User: Fold this.
Amino acid sequence: MSGATKARVRLPLGAVVAHLGQDPEWALAARFWTARIGFFVDDERSVLTIENGAVGSFEPSGPASPPCTLRIGGPSASWRELLQPEPRPFFQDFLPASLHHGFVCEGDLESFYAYYGAISRILVAMRRAVAEQR
Assistant:
């Protein structure tokens, strides 16, 4: 394995926010939603804040950060697969990755399922942002 393959995955936070802001499917799926979603890659954490369907911020967070509505994440190796333009089976979305590849989706599961379409659009925005970096 090359050093680049072993490198920690870094989520392009600003680019994800920009993509969500231009995504009409996100706007429809996230309407009325207010949440704090904690994403983590290994031990690196960030929080996406959503206020009434609009992205407020996506910033690194620390241990003293207020609690999140949802927590989604896992090891770099899983993120690397999840963020591929054409991911392998069970890496197409957060939920199958949590069921089959050690990813975590926890917190207010009622909100998770109610806004699953919006959560899926977050992953699309992440893939687009990562593809721009390649």
